């Protein structure tokens, strides 16, 4: 009689992840016919169908959804147990997959990554760039750094650092258009609209004393990449709300000016997001602490923000 093995669990998880028997077979280096056979044997043992098959797409049945909730947990816990055993017996090793917004990756790519790979040469680090908000259904890494937390109780949102955003413009633009004296004056200026993953398009924040307020942004120039927004601001196309770490070098050499004496700037947390498991991924923790200590993305977030699961 067929019994459920860890390999069966991994196979079901991979099929659900990639949405295809064939792609799952290829990524796991298995013969395609054997994948179909193993799933049929598993379904016969369970007495239910896990997948709804059609010529157009493959989908989980309700029973398959219920099975997947447990199978993903089992696989994650097994990985955590084996990783924990490895890290307690010697030098940290194994694979660490990290995803971050493209801009963050470029900022940490030099100092942090260089230090990390030199200090932990047995860890295989895979760094991916993303330009979107985190999605629990597409979370295929060990750790994600993002400005938006993940609203899912099966994930931990840990505040990593406080990334301040403020209003900037080039001196050439300000000499031509004049200096805004208040937030309300921005409606009379050209704006370079940078859209963030943690906000709705066309919205910025500004600090009004102890209150955080929303600014509705209307612009003929809208971008979703911070470096492109910085360049358009440097070229005099208007005022932009930008992360401080993107602008400091241009502020120092006089190519950009900070508006309103910085009194409307808003600090927002950068989140370290990872699956909630009984055992912590030691390699991930090493990376988080190194990124936090570097302060390249902002000062460390205060402990009072705490960790959340959604």
Automatic annotation (TrEMBL):
SUPFAM superfamilies: Periplasmic binding protein-like II, Winged helix' DNA-binding domain. The keyword Transcription regulation applies. Keywords: DNA-binding, Transcription, Transcription regulation. Residues 4-61 form the HTH lysR-type domain. It comes from the Bacteria. One of its GO terms (biological process) is DNA-templated transcription. GO terms for molecular function: DNA-binding transcription factor activity; sequence-specific DNA binding. Pfam families: HTH_1, LysR_substrate. InterPro entries: LysR-type_TF_proteobact-type, LysR_HTH_N, LysR_subst-bd, WH-like_DNA-bd_sf, WH_DNA-bd_sf. Coiled coil: none annotated. PANTHER family: HTH-TYPE TRANSCRIPTIONAL ACTIVATOR TTDR-RELATED, HTH-TYPE TRANSCRIPTIONAL REGULATOR. Belongs to the LysR transcriptional regulatory family. This is DNA-binding transcriptional regulator, LysR family.
